[in-house]
Design brief:
flat, guanyl-nucleotide exchange factor activity, 8-stranded mixed sheet, alpha+beta, 2 domains, PH_domain, Dbl Homology Domain, Chain A, PH-domain like
C-alpha cells in the first residue's frame, strides 16, 4: 500500500498566507519604530555635539584632553549613526547595519571610557566655576527637556541595548530566503557582543566599588583588598566556635572570590576608627573544603565546617536561612576557583612544544605564512578619517589622564603583600 502526498487544502494554504502576513506586519511595525527612535537618537546626539562639544571647543572652557575624556568618541558616533539613519529611511536595513557594524569599535571605545568620563565630569563640575555655570545654562535649554549631561552621556549605551531588541524582532520576522536575513543575523551577533561588553564593564565597576568600600571599612592600609582579579561575593556576621568549647564569638566575615577574611569591630571609643574593623585572619580558598555539620533539617540555626591547609574553622549562625546561604556561597565560590585552576593547568600542558621534524616545522611555517597572507587580504582599508582621529585622540587623552592620576600600587601577588605588612594571619 503506497501513500502519495496530498495537495495542500485551501484551509492550510490560507493559514500559511495569514502567518506570512502577520510576520510582515510585525516586521513593518518594528522597522517603523526603529526608524522613529533612530531619528530621535540622532537628534539628541546632534544636540550634545552642538551645544556641548563644539561650544566648549570654541570657548576654550576646558582643555582638549579633558573634553575628550568626557565626550570620548561621541562625535564620530553621531556621524556613523547619521549614515545608518539614511539607510534605514530608504528601507535598506541589512546594508545599513552591515556597514554600521564595521564601526562598532567607536562604541567599544566609548563604553570602556564611560566611567572615566563620569569621574572627570564630576571633578570638573566641582573644580571649575565657569564650566559649572556653562553646564547648567546648556541643560536649561528647552531642547534637552530638563535632561542632565550625565544622562545624555548614557545615550549610546542605551541605544545599543535597543538595537539588540529591535534587530532580534526584525530578524525573527524576516524569511530565510530574504537577502537581508544573513546581514541582520550577523548584526544581531555583533550588537549582542557590544551589549555584553556594557554589562561586563558595569559589573566590573560595581565590583570595584564594593572592594573599595570594604577597604575603607578596615583599619589601616596593610590588608590589601583591591587586588586585580578579585571579586566581592558577600559579607555578614557569623559566630566562630573555638576548639576548646568556650563561648562562640561573633565576627564579621567578608567572602571574596579567592579569600575569606575574618575581622572584629574596633573599639567604639576610638576617635577615628570607631566604625571600622580590624582584620584578624585571611583564609585562602584555593585548598579549602566546606561541609555542613548540622542545619539540614528545619531546626533553628546551623553549623558549617571549613578545612584549610593549615587550619580548621567552625562557623555558626542562629538563622538557618543565613547559614544555608553562606554554605551555598562558599561551595559555589570554592568550586569556581578550583575549576579555574584546573583549566589553567590544562592550558599549560597544552602549551608545551611538541616534538616535530624539520619537515613538519617547514610545513607549519608555510601554512602560517599562507594564513597571514589571507588574513591581511581580509583587512578592510575603508575606515573613516574622522573615526580614526577620534580613536587616536581618545587613546592619547586616556594615556595623559592615566599619567596625571596616581596609580594604585596594587601588588602582583595580593597574598604576599598581605603577609608582609599586615597584622592579619595568612593561613
Amino acid at each position: 500500500m503506497s501513500f502519495s502526498p496530498s495537495p495542500l487544502s485551501p484551509m492550510s494554504g490560507r493559514s500559511i498566507q495569514e502567518q506570512r502576513e502577520r510576520w510582515e506586519r510585525k516586521r513593518s511595525r518594528t522597522a517603523r519604530e526603529m526608524i522613529q527612535s533612530e531619528q530621535r537618537y540622532c537628534q539628541q546626539l546632534e544636540l550634545v555635539v552642538t551645544y556641548f562639544v563644539e561650544i566648549l571647543k570654541a570657548k576654550g572652557t576646558l582643555r582638549q584632553d579633558i573634553r575628550e575624556s568626557i565626550f570620548s568618541s561621541i562625535k564620530s558616533i553621531h556621524l556613523i549613526n547619521q549614515t545608518l539613519l539614511a539607510h534605514l529611511e530608504m528601507g535598506r536595513f541589512g546594508i545599513g547595519f552591515e556597514e554600521f557594524c564595521t564601526h562598532l569599535q567607536l562604541y567599544n571605545t566609548y563604553i570602556d571610557n564611560i566611567q572615566t568620563a563620569k569621574k572627570v565630569l564630576m571633578v570638573q563640575v566641582k573644580k571649575s566655576k565657569a564650566f559649572r555655570r556653562f553646564k547648567k545654562l546648556q541643560e536649561s535649554r528647552p531642547e534637552f527637556s530638563q535632561q542632565k549631561l550625565e544622562d545624555l552621556l548614557e545615550l549610546p549605551l542605551q541605544r545599543i541595548q535597543q538595537y539588540k531588541h529591535f534587530l532580534r524582532d526584525l530578524t525573527e520576522n524576516t524569511g530565510p530566503d530574504n537577502p537581508e536575513f544573513q546581514q541582520l543575523s550577523k548584526a544581531v551577533k555583533a550588537i549582542s557582543e557590544v551589549a555584553q561588553r556594557i554589562q561586563d564593564n558595569a559589573r566590573s565597576h560595581e565590583n570595584h566599588l564594593q572592594l573599595r568600600r570594604v577597604q575603607k571599612q578596615l583599619k589601616g592600609r596593610k590588608t590589601r583588598i583591591l587586588t586585580p582579579g578579585r571579586w566581592y561575593i558577600r559579607e555578614g556576621w557569623l559566630k566562630t566556635v573555638p576548639p576548646k568549647g568556650t563561648e562562640a564569638k561573633p565576627k564579621m566575615f567578608y567572602l571574596f572570590s579567592d579569600i575569606l577574611l575574618q575581622a572584629k569591630p574596633c573599639s567604639p571609643m576610638h576617635p577615628t576608627n570607631g566604625d571600622k574593623f580590624t582584620c584578624q585572619r585571611v583564609y585562602p580558598l584555593k585548598e579549602c573544603t566546606v561541609d555542613k555539620v548540622f542545619g539540614h533539617t528545619k531546626s533553628q540555626g546551623g553549623l558549617i565546617s571549613l578545612t584549610f591547609a593549615r587550619a580548621k574553622l567552625l562557623l555558626m549562625s542562629d538563622d538557618q536561612v543565613d547559614i544555608n546561604d553562606w554554605y551555598r556561597s562558599l561551595c559555589l565560590t570554592i568550586g569556581q576557583l578550583k575549576s579555574r585552576n584546573t583549566v589553567v593547568h590544562r592550558r599549560d600542558e597544552l602549551c608545551r612544544t611538541p616534538i616535530r621534524s624539520d619537515a613538519d616545522d617547514q610545513s607549519s611555517t608555510e601554512s602560517q605564512n599562507t594564513r597571514g597572507t589571507k588574513r591581511a587580504m581580509m583587512l578592510d582599508d575603508e575606515v573613516r578619517e574622522e573615526s580614526s582621529r577620534s580613536l587616536s585622540s581618545t587613546e592619547e587623552s586616556s594615556r595623559s589622564a592615566t599619567k596625571r592620576r596616581k596609580p594604585d600600587q596594587t601588588p602582583a601577588d595580593g597574598r604576599s603583600q598581605e603577609s608582609s605588612g599586615s597584622s592579619c594571619v595568612i593561613l
